[in-house]
Amino acid sequence: MVPIARTVMKLNFCSLSSGSSGNCYYVGNEFHGILIDAGISATSIRRFLKHIDISMQTIMGVLITHNHTDHIKGLEVLTRKNSIPAFTTKKVWESVLGQQMRISSDCIREIPLMEKFNLAGFDIEAFPVCHDAPETVGYHICYGDEKITIATDLGHICHTAAPYIRAATLLVIESNYDEEMLITGQYPYYLKARIKSDHGHLGNHQASAFLADNIGDNLKHICLAHLSKNNNTPELVLRTLQRTLSERGINLNGYPQISILNRNSPTGMIRLI
Ligand SMILES: [Zn+2]
Ligand SMILES: [Zn+2]
Predict the structure, then answer these.
(1) Cβ < 5 A residues, ion ligand 2
(2) Taking the model in full, what pTM does it have?
(3) Coil, strand or helix: which one is 117?
(4) N or C: which end of the chain has fewer CB within 10 A?
(5) Are the beta carbons of 206 and 214 closer than 8 angstroms?
(6) Could you tell me which residues are beta bridge partners of residue 124?
(7) CA 4 – CA 44 distance, rounded (Å)
(8) Cα of 3 to ligand 1 centre, how many Å?
(9) Ligand closest to CA 195
(10) Ligand 2 centroid to 117 CA: how many Å?
(11) Percent of the chain, pLDDT > 70?
(12) Which 8-state DSSP code applies to residue 127?
């Protein structure tokens, strides 16, 4: 009897850059890739992709989360010079184009909120998160049995975002600031209040508490993302998470794996099979 060949579906993730200076993430299968945000220059995106052996020609689109510069800085050149289509909701497009970004109309693709669409074999859903932009979305990207959720700018985890975050097999979640560093730091009062607000960013304790309450058996990898340059360190992120887990008697024993994403350089390829 001839054995039936089974296709192994591979899904890869790599953070090219993560933090308040610029965000760009790569998700790819054995054929194609997509980017989430273009908050670094198109030259850096090309260079970082080359670093992980990915050619720009395999990138089928870029998904945009919101209109802050650290998420769209390279978008104009990426779409103009490389003709890569960009996808986001109507409201996010209005806010991006309202900033005088010159995006060729051929590259503008509007997607619905909380409704699946397919791009290059990936099933993708944009979901709303609470942040201080006219609209901000996270993305839930499915391929085979794997589900990647990316939620990088959110003041708190609202009831619409939580199910997408819980469903992930690989989760990219913000851990932006250490509460103590922010409060005692040099930022003016209004900026501290903005960051801490329900529409600002997620702190280390907030992210850790949510993870401690919600880590399920399906979750294979947690990537802690969008660290502040001035109000956080990778050591504090990890220490806060470990302390929160141990206070609740949770011992991960290496599963799910945990990565702290680099602010200005790629964080090695994570392979899900
Ligand atoms: Zn951001
Ligand atoms: Zn933002």
Answers:
(1) 68, 153
(2) 0.95
(3) strand
(4) N
(5) no
(6) 117, 141
(7) 43
(8) 49
(9) 2
(10) 24
(11) 97
(12) E
